[in-house]
Write a structure and sequence with these properties.
One of its GO terms (molecular function) is long-chain fatty acid-CoA ligase activity. InterPro entries: AMP-binding_CS, AMP-dep_synth/lig_dom, ANL_N_sf. This is AMP-binding protein. Keywords: ATP-binding, Nucleotide-binding. By secondary structure, this protein is of the alpha/beta class. The chain contains 20 helices and 28 strands. Strands 2-1-11-10-12-13-14-15-16 form a 9-stranded mixed sheet, with helices on both faces. An 8-stranded mixed sheet has the order 7-6-5-3-4-8-9-20, with helices on both faces. Helix 1 runs parallel beside helix 9.
Length: 637
């Protein structure tokens, strides 16, 4: 039975666990300290959470005050978040990768009173802007030796280490216990739980107000859709909790079900941590799955001879077995035996690298290429896809555990409506819900709009911008283009990404880019062609493969030239581009490209923290290079 009710709040989820799901001696979280994984029980966590709440109350924090945090995933995030949630304050999470200017804007726009800081590097950023943040009254580094970074600094806000804050909170806890309980009970589901600032691909970041109702009902609906999650599951968390996807799909789901959260050390150590923790569920982004796919394909074919033949034979048997099973057909004794052998000889070795106990992986934050999803299905690793935005809490749809349609983002979750609307005429083609699902239903293409419990309260201090995206009938306009296919939602692209060539043809970059990303040579690709006669691109090669193929050292990638002009490398890249172009309509095919030496980066302001390209920034920054692309075509087709 789903433990989340219509009246749940974020702090009530944790209270429900210790009263109805686990004893407080059970393991809540685990993280690595040195070389050892250290477990944290619910009791240990609650002691710190209550102490932090007491400290906040003692310093005068009130309901609806905004308390900010800028740090990577870990138990400290949970302590701080739960402490402020249970006294009715508002979590204002800031991406650690943002610039000082962006951080300053968010702190001032939200009026944040406190800021938890996760590293010396981040503290140095904050010291430069702290006195410009007029509402900030307390700076809280999570490390104790912060003084060596602040001894020459003078700022208006007080400063205290997180451990000292907890110690002081414990000293006054008895005086505030009853107040904490009454604060928790007085929280309304309509109260704002968090402010999450949009990544700002098109302008100034906007603070998305998500209520306790938004967040808990999103979890409730997701658990109604994916019913296989239990209190015995182990989630490995590595995506940023400052983003709503990881906060809902891992943190809040674990708060609702009593599943254990294990915090990965870093993305670089993720593979090692998976082998150690043996998680049953991992939330991830498509790019991670693409990299696993690329490396597995490369490794499986590297030796040549019998090993390569065995690898390809296994994939073929896995594909045939999967297709029949997903169609509800019996694979038969021979194919079942062949697939079992393929699993023993090939697939099991890949699964071992994930810990060997995965129930499923959940992919979100972007489109997963269809061939990558199918690859994991062939291996017998289930990948569920979800779709949504920060403004929708975030989940609008997610793949059902027992019904996979690759290339889609699943069935609409319970108790919301999703419609497809004509971009030009505003005519609504269809309105679909969880209950109207039909496995053979297909619709026309248009903008995806939604209404229901998932839709945000609005943008903080921006009523006009709120009215621009939530219409008079309550529909939130996502700005995404899509349709329904086999009853599931299918995303085509972002409306703002759409390129309209000089002949009036609409080109959606994402599916075109995904076609070219099938090449293991390509790490990133950025399509160009709005109001132009044809499509061109910037292509960033796989550094590893480029180095191996041409014997390049690190110095090659540190050269000042942004683009690689070496004809050998351009021709080498053109081999795959030319081949993959045959899968596209003629007006979608790349007619020219430049090979960019290094990836687009957050540091250069070219991509957002959620790895979305800032189209206007890139087009302005590389305007001269773009013009050159239209002076002469490469022999592509």
């Amino acid at each position: 039975m789903n433990p989340v009710t219509e009246y749940s709040t974020v702090p009530s989820l944790l209270q429900n666990i210790i009263h109805h799901i686990h004893p407080d001696s059970a393991v809540f979280m685990t993280h690595k300290v040195g070389e050892v994984w250290e477990d944290i029980t619910y009791k240990q966590a609650l002691e710190k959470i209550n102490a932090i709440s007491a400290y906040f109350l003692d310093m005068g924090i009130k309901k609806n005050d905004r308390l900010a945090l800028i740090l990577d995933n870990g138990p400290d995030y949970v302590y701080y978040d739960q402490a402020l949630q249970q006294i009715g304050a508002v979590n204002t999470s800031i991406y650690p990768t943002l610039s000082e200017t962006e951080i300053e804007y968010i702190l001032n726009d939200s009026g944040a009173k406190t800021l938890l800081i996760g590293s010396p590097f981040l503290l140095k950023k904050i010291l430069k802007i702290a006195n410009s943040c007029t509402e900030l009254i307390r700076i809280i580094p999570i490390f104790d030796d912060y003084q060596k970074y602040t001894e020459k600094a003078k700022f208006n806000a007080g400063i205290i280490s997180f451990s000292a804050l907890i110690t002081e909170g414990k000293q006054v806890l008895n005086a505030y216990l009853s107040t904490i309980n009454s604060c928790r009970e007085s929280i309304l589901t309509s109260d704002v739980s968090t402010l999450i600032y949009t990544s700002g691909t098109t302008g100034t970041p906007k603070g998305v107000m998500l209520t306790h109702y938004n967040l808990t009902q999103n979890v409730r609906a997701s658990l109604d859709q994916i019913t296989v999650i239990t209190k015995e599951d182990v989630f490995l968390s590595f995506l940023p909790l400052s983003h709503v996807f990881e906060r809902t799909a891992t943190y809040h789901v674990c708060l609702a079900t009593g599943s254990k959260i294990a915090f990965a050390q870093s993305l670089e150590l993720l593979a090692k941590n998976m082998a150690e923790i043996k998680p049953t569920v991992v939330s991830c982004v498509p790019r991670l799955l693409e990299r696993i796919h690329d490396r597995a394909m490369k490794s499986g074919q590297a030796s040549g001879g019998i090993k390569t033949k065995l690898f390809l034979w296994s994939l073929e048997k896995g594909r045939k077995f999967r297709v029949l099973k997903e169609a509800g057909k019996n694979p038969g004794l021979i194919l079942s035996a062949e697939n079992k052998l393929a699993d023993k000889l090939v697939f099991s070795k890949i699964k071992e690298k994930t810990g060997g106990k995965l129930k499923f992986m959940l992919s979100g934050g972007g489109a997963l290429p269809k061939n990558v999803g199918e690859f994991f299905g062939d291996l017998g690793i289930k990948v569920l896809e979800g779709f949504g935005l920060t403004e929708t809490s975030p989940v609008m749809s997610v793949t059902e555990y027992d019904r996979q349609v690759y290339g889609t983002v699943g069935r609409i979750i319970p108790r919301i409506e999703v419609a497809i609307q004509n971009i030009d005429t505003q005519k609504i083609y269809t309105i679909q819900t969880h209950d109207t699902f039909k496995p053979d239903f297909e619709s026309e293409e248009g903008e995806i709009i939604t209404r229901g419990h998932c839709v945000m309260k609005g943008y903080w201090n921006k009523p006009e911008e709120t009215r621009n995206v939530i219409d008079a009938d309550g529909w939130f306009h996502t700005g995404d283009i899509g349709r329904f296919y086999k009853g599931n939602l299918q995303i085509t692209d972002r409306l703002k990404n759409m390129l309209v060539n000089s002949f009036g043809k609409n080109v959606y970059p994402t599916p075109v880019e995904n076609t070219y990303l099938k090449s293991p040579k390509i790490e990133q690709i950025f399509l160009i062609g709005d109001k132009r006669e044809y499509v061109t691109a910037f292509i960033i090669p796989s550094k590893e493969i480029l180095q191996e193929t041409f014997g390049l050292n690190e110095a090659y990638f540190e050269q000042p030239d942004v683009f690689i002009e070496d004809k050998r490398i351009v021709d080498w890249m053109n081999e795959d581009v030319k081949k993959l172009s045959n899968e596209l309509a003629k007006f979608e095919r790349i007619k020219n490209f430049k090979v960019k030496r290094n990836p687009f980066s957050m540091e250069a302001g070219e991509i957002t923290p959620t790895l979305k390209a800032k189209r206007k920034v890139i087009e302005k920054k590389y305007a001269e290079a773009i013009d050159q692309l239209y002076l002469q075509e490469i022999d592509m087709v």
